[in-house]
Amino acid sequence: MASSIWSWLALAFAALLLPAVGTVLWLLRQRGGLRRQVPALAHDAEALNDRLWSLADSEERYRSLIEAQGDLIVRRDGARVVYANRAYAALFGAGEQDLVGSEMLLPQLASRPVLLLEGGARSFDECLATYEGERWISWVETAVPGPGGRTLIQRVGRDISARIASEDALVEARARAEAANEAKSRFLATVSHEFRTPLNGILGMADLLTDTGPDAEQATYVAALRTSGEALLALVDDILDFAKVEAGKLELVEEPFDMVQLVETVAELMAPRAQAKGLELAAHIAPALPARLVGDRDRLRQVLLNLVGNAVKFTEAGGVGLSLARVGERLEITVADTGPGIPADRLDVIFGEFEQLDHGGAAGQAGTGLGLAIVRRLARLMGGEVRAESRFGEGATFRVTLPLVAALDAPEARIPHWSQHHVLLVSPAPFAVRFLAETIRATGASVSIAGTAEVARAKLAGDNPVTAVLVDHALGDAPAKELAAAAAAAGIRACLILLSPHARRQFGSPQEAGFSGFLIKPVRTRSLYERLGSGLETGPSVVDEPAARAATQARLPGAGLTVLVAEDNEINALLAMRTLERCGCTAIWARDGREALRRVEASFAGAAQPLALALLDVRMPMMTGLDCARAIRALEKRLGRAAMLPLVAVTANVSAADRAAAFAAGMDDCLAKPLEREALLRWLERLSQSAAGSLSA
Questions:
Q1: CA 66 distance to own-chain centroid
Q2: Whose CA is closest to 631, among 672, 598, 670?
Q3: Strands (E), 391-534
Q4: Residues 233-270: tens digit of each pLDDT
Q5: Domain total for the chain?
Q6: In angstroms, what CA-CA distances link 594 with 226, 341, 630, 673?
Q7: CB count, 10 Å around CB of 630?
Q8: How many Cα atoms within 13 Å fall on the side-chain side of residue 250?
Q9: Structure-derived torsion over alpha carbons of residues 179, 181, 185, 186, reported in degrees to the nearest 10
Q10: What is the pTM of this model?
Q11: Domain identity same for 181 and 242
């Protein structure tokens, strides 16, 4: 029994001991395994620690880099700051940790519009009142993920105060430059007026003095006076025009104008200067060119005057030719001369500012060296170009191409049909004879050219019968008259002589010299067709010159017209009045705008002779010409007058703005000083025709 108990106890103890022993043995085995893993774990822990240090170092380097760049970084959860770097905190004069958890904001002083970037980011600039003063910050704002799935707003900014200061300085400098430019423009306008006013008197009085019939010595002095005045006026014009072009103040107009009249007027204006040097000046417009074009007439006139004036100035013998033709869709202006020419390496340089050529004998020519520079700038402003062609010692040719189109109301050219006629041209001139030949050939007539009297006589005696002869007085007085006699002997009824204005005064009666008539050089196309056509159709015209002069007096353009001259400058007033009186007008002088207004009121009330025209100087004391025009228009409206008094502004400044101001004040036209006789004559002729009932004013 006892042994059984002990056996059972032994079994029970064994049953309890065996699991414990197994556990101990398992633990012992695990311990061994752990001992074997300790080195590997220690190595892994060391590697992990190294990685943490590397990450910390990399983060520090990144943070240092960001701080070194000076970027401002802030993250907010709503309004609360969750992160701010040192640069951003410095705006508050605080540390980074002082801002975290706060809702601190800097006062905004100014801002610029927000720009949306790709990806939903925004960019904007704002001026903030910071601890260090006003600062302009350029921000880029984006949404970034935060802890717990929240979205944070991150702003990265950069201080752009220096750039804004530079921009402000630039804006201020530009404003100062524009103000200075405006002041310069006002100064130029004032200088232009002050220069032109006395020059108007000088040149106008020289014209009037010439008409009084001075003796030879006096005429020489008057010519020198006029030449000096014109030279001074040209210098002033060049300087003022160049300043306007350079400042961008020159405005172009697009309006129809008579191209033929413009070219012929320029040629006639420059002809006396050329003829005084013994030069020929001729102009030609291709028959296919429309008579009316659309563009800026005044600027094109300036281009022509500069080119022709330059050619005349540097040409000592021969002549200058001005021609216009259509080349493709563009107008081509050609000015050629027989001067000394231009070296090849200077053909482009001469268009620079203040550039002049030294031509030896022509050296020392007066001028600013701005004429060709102005031509190039004006040509480019009108959408065209200018170029020079020359061989040194063989003259020069300037070509200007402009995109001018024909006016819608351009009339068709009236060219006579002379296909049955043969015209002989006798002239030693290099350009006029060629231009006349082209003009006559356009009628269908055949043309022969002779450079000497001997060649002309041979052609008159040739097999091809000549029906008309044009003789240039440049051949000489005696040879020209001998050719007229030879033409008459050959039974030719149409024989015209070409005379310069100066030669016309000395030549005497062309009819007495054997000619059927005469043409003044440079020859107008219309005059050529009329005079030559008259001779071809009806034979020689015998003119009673005294009777013709009497008829001319009766047909003065201003006969019977009363014109008011409102001008504060006595010399200019005298010049205008004498010019009007020579045109047959009755001129009344008003010294200022108020007196002019009183004169007009008296005319409207019937207390004085009715006025046909009023010339109002823009700048007058008491009341300006513009204010006077406004008052006159208001008076007419108040009185209910159906016919308005024509008002013409007279000013030294004829820019687009000046013309616009004149028209806005009620003026009908705007004329420049020195007062152009041709422009004034056109007004008088228009008013005379209106008074006669043949043309509506």
A1: 54
A2: 598
A3: 396-402, 405-406, 422-426, 446-450, 468-472, 494-499, 517-520
A4: 766 766 666 666 665 656 777 888 888 888 888 888 78
A5: 5
A6: 34, 56, 12, 22
A7: 16
A8: 19
A9: 30
A10: 0.54
A11: yes
